[in-house]
Amino acid sequence: MVKSVPMRTLLSLLIFLASQSHASDALKVAIYEPHFAPYLLFTKQQTDVSGIIPDLLEDFSREHELSVHYEVDSRQGGEMKLYGGQVNMMVLSKEWTKHPDKLLFSDSIMPFRDYLYVLSPDKAKLLADAQNVLRICTRVFYVYPQLEPLFQSGRALRIDGTDQESQVRMLQNNRCDFAYLNRLMLLWMVDNRFPGVRFYQVSALMADAPLQLALHPSIGHLLPALNAYLKMARNNGTVETLMDHYLSEESKTSVVEIKPVD
Known about the structure:
The protein contains nine helices and 13 strands. 33% of the residues are buried. By secondary structure, the protein is an alpha/beta fold. Strand 2 (41-42) and strand 3 (49-50) form a beta hairpin.
């Protein structure tokens, strides 16, 4: 004779299984230390995470009843944890990763454009003289496909800073001729770190990559819904509204594009 399972036991089992299923869909997101503003911002206590990406993820997770947990790490450390499954999501472009075949990637959230920046238009003339060895401030652990041929040939020296702010400070202190920076990140720094400073943007060697979310395969089943949400956010103006929320109009007038040097 087969014994029936008590109703209380059955309900407990169903609740446990439901909770496990929900937990498996928790988003464990690696975020960069130092800041990756305006894409990612957080307090030292990690109690207040904001920025373009967290705001989008909050909206997406609410729609799909997901929990979101953030873990602060370095750019390199976060990527290693993503491969190992300790976190399951991170802001990364496919072309920035060491092992893209081990991850899944969302559609583009927005373009991610890096440029050379100078503090004086005359500095840009250094690009025209092949005899000049260019000193370019970059960020440690970051990959720069557009600049790598210059570094390998000896045409340019790579001078690493710990974050974008240190790149700008080295540029101000004449430790480098150029700083290679993401445009939106520079605009945020003009608002919050360098008010009143004018920067000149050089279009030569511009890098244009899609800003994406990299996913561990364990949450690959969320990718279609995530891509559908990102498409909607791009098309209905949500992404642009968030950009305007974190960046002022004044900052945009402090970054001036100059023509390529012949």
